[in-house]
Amino acid sequence: MAEQQAKVAAGTHGRGRARHLGQIRYKTASKNCIYDVLRTRPGWVEVKDDGAWDFYWCEVGWLRDNFDQNYFEEHVKICHFRNHYELTRKNLMVRNLKRYRKQLERVVGKDGQARMDFFPTTYELPSEYHMFVEEFKRNPGSIWIMKPISKSQGKGIFLFRKLKDIENWKKADYNSMYKDDRVAEARHEPETYIVSRYIANPYLISGKKFDLRVYALVTSYVPLKAWLYRSGFARFSGARYRLDTIEDSYVHLTNVAIQKTAPDYDPEKGCKWGLQELRNFFVAKHGQDAADTLYREIDNVLIRSLESVQKIIINDKHCFEVYGFDIMIDANLKPWLIEVNASPSLTASSPSDHELKVGLLTDMLDIIDMEGKLSGDETRIGGFDLMWNEGPVHSQEICLKETVPDYPTNTFLGCENDRETQRADLHRSLAMAKILARKKKSSQ
Taking residues 378-400, what's their average pLDDT? Predict the structure, then answer.
C-alpha cells in the first residue's frame, strides 16, 4: 500500500505542475461520450494503465476498491463521492427520503410532509415484507411494481396485482432467510428488492407513457452546491398505455434499453423528446402558470433529494457527481421521483443525444475547472445553472421568451440552452477581468 501511495504522490505533484506543463492528465474507464469530450479538450492528455493522473472518470467498482487506499494531491478530481449509493441505490434512497421527511415533519409539521410528497409508498423486501402485506391488504386492487435495488436498464422489474404473483420471487429469495443455517449457507443471500405502489395515472402524450431524465451536478455537499442542466430528455414507451396488460414491458417501462428491443422500434425516430420540446408542449397545453408550478415542484424534488443525504454523503474536495434523476409526471401534473442514477448512460443513441451529452460533459468540466479559469462567483456556466449554494440561488438572467419561468430561482430546466453563446461570453468576460487585474497591479 505504501508503495502504491508513493507512486500516486510522485505522479500528481499538484495543480501548479499541471498548469506549468499546460497539461491535465486524465484517465477514463469509459469509451463513450465522456471519452469524446476528454480526448478533444485542449491541454488534456490521456494516461493509461498505471500512469499518474489528475482527473479520473472511474467506475464505481474502482472507487469502492481503491479510493481509501490512495493519497491524492490537492487538485485531483474523481467523478463519484465515496458513498454515492446512499442516494443512488433504490432502497437506500427511499430509506433516506423517509428519514428526512420525518425530520421535516418534526420541524415544520404537515408542511414538511407536503414538501416530501414526491415518492410513492415503498417498502424494502424481504426485510419489510410483513409491512408491505399489511399495506397491500388495505388497498385491494392496487398495482405494485417490484425492482431489484442494484440493477439498471429495467432488468428484473415486474408489475403485479395479487400477492400470489410474487410467489416465485418469495420462494427463491424471501424464504431462504427463514431456513436453517445449513440450507442458508448453501444458497446465495436473498436479493433485495423494493416494491412501490405503481403510478397508474401517468400523464400521456399520444397515448404513451414517458418519464424525464434530468441532470444535476453536485460539486460539494458541505456546503451543498448543486447545478441543474437545462437540457435533458423525456423517454417514451413504444406502445400505447393500458392497464389490462401489466406484464408488457413495452407499455409500462420507458427504459431505452427495453424499448429498442421492441419489434416495431424505429432507431431513426427513437423514443425521446428534448426537455425544451416537452416544456413548450406543457405551456401550450396547460398555460404558463401550470407549467411553472410543475417545474417548481421538479426543483423541489431535486433539492429535497439532495438534502436527504447531505449529512450522510462523505464530502470530499476531490469528488463531484453527475446525477441522472428519473422523474415521472402524473395526469394531475404532479412529478414523482422514480430513481437517481450515479452513472447515467453516456452512450449516445442518436446524433441529437450525442450533442446533448457532449454539451453536458463539456460544461461539467468547465465547472470542475481543473484549468483554474473561473472566478468562483459564476451562477451560469454553459447549460448549467447554479440552483443551490447553501440555499436557493436567485436568478440574474433577463429574458423575454414566453417559456422562461417567472419565479425568482436560478433554474431553467427545459428553457433555451444557448450554451455555446454563454460559454463564449463567459470566457471573454473572464479574459477581460484578468487584463484589468494586471493593469491595476502594474499601476500600483
Answer: 85
